[in-house]
């Protein structure tokens, strides 16, 4: 019997009827743990039974103002109602359209217009700005303010289970972070999301009664992590926004056992004054993604925080993770096998992964190639972008754009993004390889490596560095030369206060390329 069939039977559907929906996860948890806390937020606690009713009311309220198949756009910071929408919008047969509140209002209006959303749900702080842009969002028929009237509308709706949509209908419309260009709307179906969640549940170590602290914006696809924990009946604590003091207070107050952070967040947390004296005794594991974790950060994290670490690798188009780098491997890395930290993990069971050359032939073990994926996790396509969708697939395989290699243990190592490879003097330089070397310097807190135009070499290697203590460009270059071939050594080092990142913690290298390309042009003119 499969995991899916077991789950479906727990909902009483043994007749081979409609497939699993993302809102079924809450239905299941409410049957099994009705009185257990599903969401903690500031002074508010929502049980699984209460969350189930809120989700049903949300779906029924939306069906009164919109039609199945519509897009419902949401602009809000983290709050419990966001979880109601995570499950309730798809439960109504509509597509939850995520809006990044860190964008400029005109950019947000552009996404709403592209999504052709019929409903816009906003929290109070964004209501006035979006009202001024109504003319730029002509498809929006209904605007609901989470802080003014929304609660009354939902509260009056029945808590009965809404009609079931098809599992292949669009559940979430996620606009990509745009690390390499303009955002694209990724269409994820119920099937995509549920498959991703089940795969993660099968690989992650989530004991019963786990208490997970979610620290990222819920407007990002990484919010699926919270759905994974809800499927296990775990309590999800939610922060309005992350800072070290709030994190440390809530871990102690809510007795948090697991959390997720980006490696840069872990590094800054370890530098927090008095971290060694804080009450973190309940913390058992930290999951991370977005980038590799430096060996010294891992070792100090295990020592100071007293917990284990694991990593997941995925992307918006894959509805969750497809690679898992587990606790056991992190312990090996901390004990001395630091080369493992360059890996993203092993392929998870519900993903079909190949590594191919330019002719789409499988490459030998250890050789680099592009990672391509197929399976129920893979997106339906890009919203209103048929040409981009066609470019993203070949023979049914989704092209991730990641250059990887796989070793004899089955560990997959990310060599680089295809678009981040630097070609200098005819030689290929993997930016990640150079970054991993720079991370080893004790005075470097963060670094990003990218190519800038060079009239002689085509591109030259440039490094943007966040210094932990005083260090000069010559010292950075000399350190790199001790560990890398000459053509890989940065020809230019720029010091910055911080690296530009998206809400998931990924570095926006296109912004760095543009910024320092302009600096170089100015220098040439002067």
Q: CATH topology of the largest domain, which one?
A: Rossmann fold
Q: Give the structural class.
A: alpha/beta
- Count of the separate structural domains: 3
CATH superfamily of the largest domain: ANL, N-terminal domain
Taken from the alpha-carbon principal axes, the silhouette is globular
Main beta sheet strand tally, sense and closure: 14 strands, mixed
Structure write-up:
This protein has 526 residues and is α/β, with parallel strands linked by helices. It has three domains: 48-188, 3-Layer(aba) Sandwich (Rossmann fold), CATH 3.40.50; 242-418, 3-Layer(aba) Sandwich (Rossmann fold), CATH 3.40.50; 428-525, 2-Layer Sandwich (GMP Synthetase, Chain A, domain 3), CATH 3.30.300.30. The protein is 33% helix and 25% strand. Strands 1, 2, 9, 10, 11, 12, 13, 14, 15, 16, 17, 19, 20 and 21 form a 14-stranded mixed β-sheet that branches. The radius of gyration is 23 Å and the shape is globular. Mean pLDDT is 92; it is low at 1-17 and 521-526.
Describe the secondary-structure layout:
Blueprint: H1 3-10, H2 24-32, E1 37-41, E2 44-47, H3 48-63, E3 71-75, H4 80-91, E4 95-98, H5 105-115, E5 119-122, H6 124-131, E6 142-145, H7 150-156, E7 170-175, E8 185-189, H8 190-203, E9 211-214, H9 224-231, E10 235-238, H10 244-253, E11 258-260, H11 263-270, E12 285-288, H12 295-304, E13 308-315, E14 320-325, H13 327-334, E15 343-347, E16 352-356, E17 369-374, E18 381-382, H14 386-392, E19 393-394, E20 397-406, E21 412-417, E22 422-424, E23 427-429, H15 431-439, E24 444-454, E25 458-467, H16 473-483, E26 492-495, H17 509-525
Parallel strand pairs: 1-10, 3-4, 3-5, 4-7, 5-6, 9-10, 9-11, 11-12, 12-13, 25-26
Antiparallel strand pairs: 1-2, 7-8, 8-18, 13-14, 14-15, 15-21, 16-17, 17-20, 19-20, 20-21, 22-23, 24-25
């Amino acid at each position: 019997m499969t995991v899916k069939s077991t789950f479906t039977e727990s909902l009483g559907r043994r007749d081979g009827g409609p497939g699993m929906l993302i809102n079924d996860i809450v239905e299941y948890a409410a049957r099994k743990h009705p009185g257990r806390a599903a969401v903690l937020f500031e002074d508010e606690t929502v049980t699984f039974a209460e969350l189930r009713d809120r989700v049903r009311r949300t779906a029924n309220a939306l069906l009164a103002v919109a039609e199945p198949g519509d897009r419902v756009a949401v602009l809000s910071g983290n709050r419990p109602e966001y979880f109601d929408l995570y499950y309730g919008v798809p439960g109504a047969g509509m597509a939850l359209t995520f809006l990044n509140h860190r964008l400029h209002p005109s950019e947000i209006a552009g996404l709403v217009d592209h999504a052709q959303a019929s409903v816009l749900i906003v929290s109070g702080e964004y209501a006035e700005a979006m009202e001024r842009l109504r003319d730029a969002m002509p498809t929006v028929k209904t605007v609901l303010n989470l802080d003014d009237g929304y609660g009354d509308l939902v509260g009056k709706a029945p808590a009965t289970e809404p009609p079931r949509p098809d599992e292949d209908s669009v559940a979430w419309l996620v606009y990509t972070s745009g690390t390499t260009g303009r955002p694209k709307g990724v269409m994820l179906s119920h099937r995509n999301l549920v498959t991703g969640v089940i795969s993660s549940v099968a690989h992650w170590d989530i004991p019963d009664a786990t208490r997970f602290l979610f620290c990222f914006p819920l407007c990002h696809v990484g919010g699926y992590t919270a759905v994974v924990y809800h499927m296990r009946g775990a309590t999800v604590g939610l922060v309005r926004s992350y800072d070290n003091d709030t994190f440390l207070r809530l871990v102690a107050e809510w007795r948090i056992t697991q959390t997720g952070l980006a490696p840069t967040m872990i590094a800054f947390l370890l530098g927090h004054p008095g971290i060694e004296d804080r009450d973190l005794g309940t913390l058992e594991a930290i999951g991370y993604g977005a980038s590799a974790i430096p060996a010294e950060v891992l070792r100090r994290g295990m020592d100071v925080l007293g917990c284990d670490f694991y990593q997941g690798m995925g992307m918006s188009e894959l509805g969750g993770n497809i690679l898992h780098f587990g606790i056991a491997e992190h312990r090996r890395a901390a004990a001395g096998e630091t080369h493992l930290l360059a890996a993203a993990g092993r392929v998870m069971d519900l993903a079909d992964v190949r590594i191919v050359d330019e002719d789409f032939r499988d490459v030998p073990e250890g050789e680099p190639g592009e990672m391509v994926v197929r399976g129920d996790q893979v997106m339906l396509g890009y919203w209103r972008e048929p040409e981009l969708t066609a470019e993203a697939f070949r023979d049914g395989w989704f092209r991730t754009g990641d250059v990887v290699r796989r070793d004899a243990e089955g560990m997959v190592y990310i060599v680089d993004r295809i678009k981040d490879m630097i070609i200098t003097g005819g030689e290929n330089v993997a930016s990640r390889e150079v970054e991993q070397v720079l991370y080893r310097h004790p005075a470097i807190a963060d670094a990003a490596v990218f190519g800038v135009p060079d009239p002689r070499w085509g591109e030259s290697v440039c490094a943007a560095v966040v210094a932990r203590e005083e260090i000069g460009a010559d010292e950075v270059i000399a350190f790199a030369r001790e560990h890398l071939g000459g053509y890989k050594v940065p020809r230019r080092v720029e010091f910055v206060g911080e690296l530009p990142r998206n809400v998931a913690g990924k570095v926006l290298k296109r912004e760095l390329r543009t910024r320092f390309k302009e600096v170089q042009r100015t220098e040439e003119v002067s």
